[in-house]
Amino acid sequence: MAFGILDLKAAARSFVLGARIGHLATAAPNGAPHVVPVCFALAGDRVYIALDEKAKSVQPRELRRVRNLLANPRVQLVVDRYDEDWRRLGFVQLSGTASLIEGGEEHAAAVAALRDKYPQYRSMSLESRPVIRIEVARVTAWGDLSS
Prior knowledge:
Blueprint: E1 2-3, H1 10-18, E2 22-27, E3 33-38, E4 41-43, E5 46-50, H2 64-71, E6 74-81, E7 90-101, H3 104-117, E8 131-143
Antiparallel strand pairs: 1-8, 2-3, 2-6, 4-5, 5-8, 6-7, 7-8
């Protein structure tokens, strides 16, 4: 089923809020897809993804996902559950427009939301790092979204 974020049913919102990991899909300027697992926080109609201090070979703005979204801001985040009992399979796909936020009240609120969800972020210096913001425009949900 597909519905707008403002109409996101309680089960789908709960499924996303309870998930520990999602998969962020971006596309390079030449159309090549790029998917990476991410930690995220959902706040209202927005998703926030930290560009954290975990080991990376380049600076945050040089990450492929960041270069991609700066060139083409259309992205998707998929949150899913696999289970050997296929009756328990489920996913929520959030489609929208991504941008970077650096500083300000929204950045501070995003960092706080990410730290609330992931205790590992409490010891990382996220204030000086960009955060990916996704303005969710479309939600698609399928399967068993129960806890």
